[in-house]
């Protein structure tokens, strides 16, 4: 994963540069300083958040794995699946989708797209709103308002882990200063030591400031930023589905409906118009 590669680059750059400049890694190994800083950060995290935010942060790695695969190929598959579903509804009526949306695992349409079926966020969003369209004659503006409300709720919930980690990263440098001050107090309290040992104790104490800043901006803040980006990727996927379904409800044929959805994507993952048309009319549907 890119996050692992980035963290390794940060680690090698900081400590490798220190060693190349003639420094020794030995004095940087201060487990008690690390215990004070990391422990205070974890304690502050627990005190500042409720159970929902803590659980969301601990399980955010699973969202990493899913949304990291939201690439151009997956969006093409999504367009193909939506095209197939909307085409069937246009030919046979919305009631013809009832079995497909009630049992996606048994549906011939969904079976063509195992990557999408394995993502509960995508499948639940599609089947829930298709079920509403099957069971009621919702107007486009009513459907749009409901989908926007759900996406807004998802964005708020998905943003809890990054917000919690950002607050921890803001606090870690201060905890590093606390650890350093405590180390200096310990050094200055040792009145019977010589100047050489006193210098070593003060140097060890200052490692706390370094560790607090490094953990904040070299580890926790990048993790928080990555969670934020992955949540945005998931929200963009839901927006694509929303635009496609709304276009269909407003009377657009399936080919135009998926084109509306294509326009909702970022340009880096957006397939071309001809590419999409070829896919949904060929292998995709």
UniProtKB/TrEMBL annotation:
Domain of life: Bacteria
Family, per entry: Belongs to the exbB/tolQ family.
Cellular component GO terms held in the UniProt record: plasma membrane
PANTHER family: CHEMOTAXIS PROTEIN MOTA (PTHR30433), MOTILITY PROTEIN A (PTHR30433:SF4)
Coiled coil: none
The MotA/TolQ/ExbB proton channel domain, residue ranges: 138-237
Recorded topology in the membrane: Multi-pass membrane protein
Primary subcellular site in the record, as a coarse category: membrane
Name under which the protein is recorded: Flagellar motor stator protein MotA
Keyword Protein transport: yes
Subcellular location: Cell membrane; Membrane
Keywords: Cell membrane, Cell projection, Cilium, Flagellar rotation, Flagellum, Membrane, Protein transport, Transmembrane, Transmembrane helix, Transport
Membrane-crossing residue ranges in chain numbering: 32-48, 171-189, 201-220
A Gene Ontology BP annotation from the UniProt entry: chemotaxis
InterPro entries found in the cross-reference section: Flagellar_motor_stator_MotA (IPR022522), MotA-like (IPR047055), MotA_ExbB_proton_chnl (IPR002898), MotA_N (IPR046786)
Gene: motA
Domain Motility protein A N-terminal, residue spans: 6-93
């Amino acid at each position: 994963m890119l996050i692992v590669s980035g963290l390794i680059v940060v680690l090698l750059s900081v400590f490798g540069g220190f060693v190349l400049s003639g420094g020794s890694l030995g004095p940087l190994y201060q487990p008690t300083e690390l215990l004070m800083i990391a422990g205070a950060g974890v304690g502050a995290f627990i005190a500042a958040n409720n159970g929902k935010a803590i659980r969301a942060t601990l399980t955010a790695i699973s969202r990493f794995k899913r949304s990291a695969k939201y690439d151009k190929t997956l969006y093409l598959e999504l367009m193909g699946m939506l095209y197939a579903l909307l085409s069937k509804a246009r030919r046979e009526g919305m009631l013809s989708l009832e079995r497909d949306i009630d049992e996606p695992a048994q549906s011939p349409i969904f079976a063509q797209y195992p990557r999408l079926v394995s993502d509960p966020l995508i499948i639940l969003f599609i089947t829930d709103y298709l079920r509403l369209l099957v069971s009621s004659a919702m107007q486009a503006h009513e459907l749009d308002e409901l989908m926007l409300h759900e996406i807004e709720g998802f964005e708020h919930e998905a943003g809890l882990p990054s917000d919690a980690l950002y607050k921890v990263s803001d606090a870690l440098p201060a905890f590093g200063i606390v650890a350093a001050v405590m180390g200096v107090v310990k050094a200055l309290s040792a009145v019977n030591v010589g100047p050489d040992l006193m210098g070593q104790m003060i140097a060890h104490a200052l490692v706390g400031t370094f560790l607090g800043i490094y953990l904040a901006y070299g580890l926790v803040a990048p993790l928080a930023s990555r969670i934020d980006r992955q949540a945005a990727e998931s929200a963009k996927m839901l927006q694509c589905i929303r635009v496609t379904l709304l276009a269909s409800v407003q009377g657009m044929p399936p080919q135009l409906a998926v084109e509306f959805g294509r326009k909702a994507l970022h340009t880096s993952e957006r397939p071309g118009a001809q590419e999409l048309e070829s896919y949904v009319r060929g292998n995709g549907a």
